[in-house]
Amino acid sequence: MKIVGAKVVVLGSQGVGKTSLVTRYETKTFSRNTSSTIGASFSHIVIVINGNKVRMQVWDTAGQERFRSMAPMYYRGAHAALLVFDITKLQTFNDIQTWVHELSSRVGEGLMLVLVGNKCDLDQRREVARDVAQQYAASIGAIFLETSAMDETGIDEMFEIIATEMLRKSDDVDSMVHVYSPEPATKSTIVLNNSASSLNDSSLPQAQNSCC
Ligand SMILES: Nc1nc2c(ncn2[C@@H]2O[C@H](COP(=O)(O)OP(=O)(O)OP(=O)(O)O)[C@@H](O)[C@H]2O)c(=O)[nH]1
Ligand SMILES: [Mg+2]
Fold it and tell me: Of 159, 8, 158, 15, nearest to 85 (Cα)?
């Protein structure tokens, strides 16, 4: 049994629901009145799969254009990137291409891409067809899933997919994911998804709860 650490960055245009997705996972809540993220905010998510623990540092970045130049600070060293668009806004899907282009060299180094079509509860206002997004994801080597921070669709799955892949990679000697130490088996499902305060892992880069 092992403990794996991974840095996960959440990218995407303003208002697509990046913060709402992370908040929904962490607190099981949803708000219609969110504040636009300033810079980025940071949280820890811990997932246990078959007794193996994956500790994710999740960097929720700001979608506002004025913070765009800060993005490399957050995706540098990342093991996985959640590329989030809003299925009701075609432009936010098109914007993903810019991120993919920017991250392309990192993908060659093993960065995992997950394309996330959020707000799937608003299907009647859909501007991005599911199969179009699915095909695009396949073309860039990304996993695709649709989510709703509002009704909780796909939220657990989104983080479980990453955790599973991080564990798989940790079996590979050339993996970018670092295995910290063996630990006895506990539970076979997600057991914890809370804040940094419950963790004390000096191997992970130091970070603040909220950063700008
Ligand atoms: N209907 C619906 N609304 C959502 C969903 N996710 C987020 N929203 C709404 O979309 C708006 C923006 O959500 P945020 O989570 O702040 O978006 P963001 O991507 O973090 O935005 P920035 O921090 O500015 O980049 C808020 O009004 C949310 O309530 C969803 O799944 N369904
Ligand atoms: Mg935000």
Answer: 15
pTM of the model: 0.84
Domain with 39, as residue range(s), is: 3-198
> What is the domain count for the chain?
1
Distance 187 CA to ligand 2 centre (A): 32
Going by the DSSP 8-state scheme, the letter that residue 160 receives in this structure is H
Read off the pLDDT band of 172 (50, 70, 90): low
Q: Does residue 14 lie within any of the structural domains?
A: yes
Q: What is the distance between the alpha carbons of residues 60 and 22, in angstroms, rounded to a whole number?
A: 8
Residue 118: give its domain's CATH number: 3.40.50.300
ipTM over 0.95: yes
Residue 24 CA: which ligand is closest? 1
Count other Cβ atoms within 10 Å, centred on residue 147: 27
